[in-house]
């Protein structure tokens, strides 16, 4: 919300900083994570807009009326920061898991650990979206769009960066009114994907990411708050063709030939020819780096495997043996490895032999004499 001048004011930024600092002190297990300020900002905006000045309210309302007095005291502008902190802490009790970084039990140490938000992103794609629209789920897998690339931002920020502030507030009202625990947020994500289903099916990797990270704002009467009603509908009908009903509702055409989702019918899938199924751990130009790292077990595992490969090749070529001999020779007090100085050594350069130490010494002596002769001439 950088375009909102209210959040550029020093007083506003000071309140945001103070609230986040106190929250981190009270919750050291999570601390501050990127995106928390974007959850806090709309709360501060609403509380500050609703705040009243008691001096003005006393002249406007009947101070003897207890109801008016209670309303004025509840919205006292002197307690904007206090009220915002209370509301933010209450919301964070629910969304705290979105920012936690944990490990999955019963996995080997070499396997990459995933946070709860990554697992939630996978569940949205591999379970809920596949139940609602198997063709779309298969297509996103085929073009290697990882769900956490866009779903982490959607879920952590409660869609705060996807829509204008007014639409975000209306969406929040609907979500918190229907489900304060925000379990419904998974199906809200699915309903958003179904809304742009046809555009995604015609998109390749870069085009799909552009759509997902710059989500097209739906116009009235189907504004973002309608995603909540769609999610409520999916909650009860996702296994009975509810996804197809939502697609038909907003696009006017129902998906055809969903089948079991094993073969995508999208245009981009036809351009690809088939769904790529990796048969070896090699990296291909069309494969995303994130997908490759995920398959190989992380960057540490790749480095370890590369080191093993270098060591095994060194053993095969005899380099390791030569290095060990040189080190042992130095440790024994000699200036050369155990090999006899006059023996010629094998070179990695096309298998050719290199001169022995005595031959190299003679060549260096001749060069030194030549240099001295040239120096005298100069």
State the distance separating the first and last CA atoms: 75 Å
Mean pLDDT equals 79
Strand ordering within the main sheet: 1-2
Level of helix content?
55-70%
Percent range for β-strand residues: under 5%
Shape annotation: flat
- Total helix count? 19
Weakly predicted, low-confidence segments: 107-112, 257-265, 268-286, 334-352
Could you give the count of β-strands?
Answer: 2
Structural class based on helices, strands and sheet pairing: mainly alpha
What is the H/E order? HHHHHHHHHHHHHHHHHHEEH
Question: What is the C-alpha radius of gyration, as a whole number of Å?
Answer: 33 Å
Q: Major sheet: size, sense and barrel closure?
A: 2 strands, antiparallel
Task: Give a written overview of the molecule.
- With about 375 residues, the chain is an all-alpha fold.
- About 60% of the residues lie in helices and about 0% in strands.
- It has 19 helices and 2 strands.
- It has helices spanning about 10-25, 35-50, 55-60, 65-75, 80-95, 115-130, 135-140, 145-155, 165-180, 185-195, 195-200, 205-215, 225-235, 240-250, 265-270, 290-295, 300-315, 320-330, 355-375, and strands at about 345, 355.
- The radius of gyration is 33 Å and the shape is flat.
- The model is unreliable at about 105-110, about 255-265, about 270-285 and about 335-350 (pLDDT under 50).
Question: Topology of this structure?
Answer:
Layout: H1 10-26, H2 36-50, H3 54-60, H4 66-74, H5 80-95, H6 116-132, H7 134-142, H8 147-156, H9 165-178, H10 185-195, H11 197-201, H12 205-213, H13 226-237, H14 242-251, H15 267-272, H16 289-296, H17 299-317, H18 319-331, E1 345-346, E2 353-354, H19 357-377
Antiparallel strand pairs: 1-2
């Amino acid at each position: 919300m950088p375009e909102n001048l209210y959040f550029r004011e020093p007083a506003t930024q000071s309140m945001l900083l103070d609230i986040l600092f106190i929250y981190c002190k009270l919750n050291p297990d999570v601390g501050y994570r990127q995106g928390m300020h974007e959850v806090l900002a709309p709360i501060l905006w609403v509380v500050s807009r609703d705040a009243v000045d008691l001096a003005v309210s006393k002249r406007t309302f009947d101070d003897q009326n207890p109801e008016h007095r209670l309303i004025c005291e509840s919205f006292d502008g002197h307690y904007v920061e206090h009220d915002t902190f209370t509301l933010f802490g209450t919301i964070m009790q629910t969304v705290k898991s979105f920012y936690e970084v944990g490990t999955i039990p019963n996995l080997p140490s070499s396997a990459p650990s995933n946070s709860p938000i990554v697992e939630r992103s996978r569940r949205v794609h591999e379970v809920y979206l596949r139940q609602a629209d198997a063709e779309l789920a298969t297509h996103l897998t085929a073009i290697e769009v990882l769900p956490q690339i866009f779903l982490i931002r959607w879920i952590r920020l409660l869609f705060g960066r996807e829509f204008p502030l007014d639409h975000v507030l209306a969406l929040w009202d609907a979500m918190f009114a229907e489900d304060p625990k925000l379990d419904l947020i998974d199906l809200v994500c699915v309903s958003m994907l179904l809304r742009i289903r046809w555009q995604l099916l015609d998109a390749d990797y870069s085009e799909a990411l552009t759509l997902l990270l710059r989500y097209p704002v739906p116009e009235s009467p189907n504004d973002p708050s309608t995603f909540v009603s769609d999610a409520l509908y999916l909650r009860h009908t996702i296994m009975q063709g509810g996804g197809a009903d939502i697609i038909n509702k907003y696009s006017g055409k129902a998906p055809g030939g969903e089948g079991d989702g094993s073969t995508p019918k999208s245009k981009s899938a036809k351009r690809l020819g088939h769904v790529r199924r990796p048969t070896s751990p090699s990296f291909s130009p069309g494969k995303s780096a994130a997908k490759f790292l995920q398959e190989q077990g992380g960057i540490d595992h790749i480095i370890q495997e590369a080191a093993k490969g270098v060591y095994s090749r060194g053993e095969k070529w005899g380099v390791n043996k030569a290095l060990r001999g040189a080190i042992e020779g130095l440790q024994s007090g000699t200036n050369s490895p155990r090999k006899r100085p006059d023996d010629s050594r094998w070179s990695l350069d096309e298998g050719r032999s290199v001169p022995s130490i005595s031959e190299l010494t003679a060549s260096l002596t001749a060069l030194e004499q030549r240099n001295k002769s040239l120096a005298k001439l100069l």
